[in-house]
Amino acid sequence: MESKIDTTAFSGWGLDVRRPLIIAGPCSAETEEQVLETARRLKKSTPTQIFRAGIWKPRTRPNSFEGVGVKGLKWLKSVKEETGLLTTTEVANAQHVYESLKYGVDMLWIGARTTVNPFTIQEIANALSGVDIPIFIKNPVNPDVDLWIGSIERLQKCGISRIAAVHRGFSSFSESRYRNEPNWQVPIELKRLRPDLPMICDPSHISGRRSLLQEVSQKAMDLNFDGLMIETHPDPDNAWSDARQQITPEQLSELLDHLILRKTDPGTNGVLSKLEELRGEIDRLDRELLNILESRMRVAAGIGQCKKESGITILQPTRWDSIISRYMELGRSKGLSDEFIRTLFMAIHEESINTQTKIMNE
Ligand code: PEP
Ligand code: MN
Predict the structure, then answer these.
(1) Residues 243-283: pLDDT tens digits?
(2) Do the Cβ atoms of 345 and 327 come closer than 8 Å?
(3) Is there an atom of ligand 1 within 6 Å of 227 CB?
(4) Most buried one in 95, 192, 255, 270, CB count within 10 A?
(5) Residue 206 near ligand 1, beta carbon < 6 Å
(6) Relative to the CA of 28, which ligand 1 atom is closest?
(7) 69: alpha, beta or left, given left = phi > 0 and alpha = psi -120 to 50?
(8) Residue to substitute in 107, 108, 137, 138 for testing ligand 1 pocket (most ligand atoms within 8 angstroms of CB)
(9) CA angle, corner 76, sides to 74 and 82, nearest 5?
(10) 211-224: string of b/e by CB count within 10 Å (b at 16+)?
(11) Ligand 2 centre and the CA of 231: distance in Å?
(12) Which of 169, 171, 220, 178 is nearest to 199 (CA)?
């Protein structure tokens, strides 16, 4: 890492207050040796402060390894005693909470499949009443900021004062280079609505494969995330869960060495005025874009009127297909990605259809 950057995100957490906070450890606790070896190697070669290991594993399909259960909590205790690392594990019901507290786990995390369910979150929040333990809340599997915030609020109402949000990406049906789509605008929106919460990124579950971890971690740092949760295993290829995305502690060290940490404060050496000039230009172009969009919708209204008078349907599918492919080709020649052009024109088209529908039904 280029340099450590001060952050106040975790003040009150009793942690080293520099960015990024590192949470690392295996997807699942498998054996006592595997857990302890991971912790020792993390301690030796990385700035990890918090050791993670799943004890109860929420698996998408049955007949997969579902975690070692309570006996793994003793191994976490040994990790803490031997290395001094703080420990965290995933809880998905009240029983998990009671067992974890009994064995002295320092912090808890709530998984994506749990955050979606207000009943379960409430059950966990109730089980935690009177115990002000730090909690990491992963985003729900679907990109719903309100649901994420709702879970956070349920815990806060039960007296939890130290909460960090963990961005682990979102399920999607379509083919993607990610295991879980990052949809960065969702955590950015959470940060806008709840600037008081530290934000952690979990590149492992976003990426689903080792080769993307560096890129996703860098992006998180460039978006000002406060920490990273990265799955590490002494022998990743033979991990009992999430083998393709885990890395060794030494590989984590290398990943962190390559991270570039940029400052949030632009400083005074002329950067600010340059930025201001560029932002002014962006604002001017954005206003121009809006004017063009206004004109475009006026033309769409004219088309709607014309279709109404001649009694034809709004949607002319073949025309739409040819427009999109023509514009993607044109966009490519201007260095604009297919994905961007598709999203942009889908939105414009949708608005056009809405405008025309209104006219048809007037
Ligand atoms: C995990 O951290 O191993 C895990 C199951 O995470 P998620 O809830 O993000 O799927
Ligand atoms: Mn995992």
Answers:
(1) 999 999 999 999 999 999 988 777 767 887 888 889 989 99
(2) yes
(3) no
(4) 255
(5) no
(6) 3
(7) left
(8) 138
(9) 105
(10) ebbbebbbebbeee
(11) 7
(12) 220
- Which residue CA neighbors atom 1 of ligand 1 most closely? 27
| Residue 171 contacts residue 154 (beta carbons within 8 Å) | no
- Joined together, the tokens standing for residue 99 give 């067992």
* The one-letter amino acid at 149: I
At 294, list the tokens.
């206004």
What are the residues whose beta carbons fall under 8 Å from the beta carbon of 160, sequence distance 6 or more? 125, 128, 132, 133, 135
Q: C-alpha distances in angstroms, 194 versus 182, 189, 209, 287?
A: 19, 8, 30, 29
**Pocket flag, ligand 1, residue 27 (CB < 6 Å):** yes
Cα(38)–Cα(29) distance, integer angstroms: 10
Task: In whole angstroms, give the CA distance from residue 239 to residue 65.
Answer: 10
CA within 13 Å, CB half, 237: 0
Query: What pLDDT digit, counting tens, does each position of 179-237 carry?
Result: 999 999 999 999 999 999 999 999 999 999 999 999 999 999 999 999 999 999 999 99
Asked if 187 contacts 148 with a C-beta cutoff of 8 angstroms, the reply is no
Q: What is the pTM of this model?
A: 0.80
Is the distance from CB of 314 to CB of 350 less than 8 angstroms?
A: no
Ligand 1 pocket check for 85: Cβ under 6 Å:
no
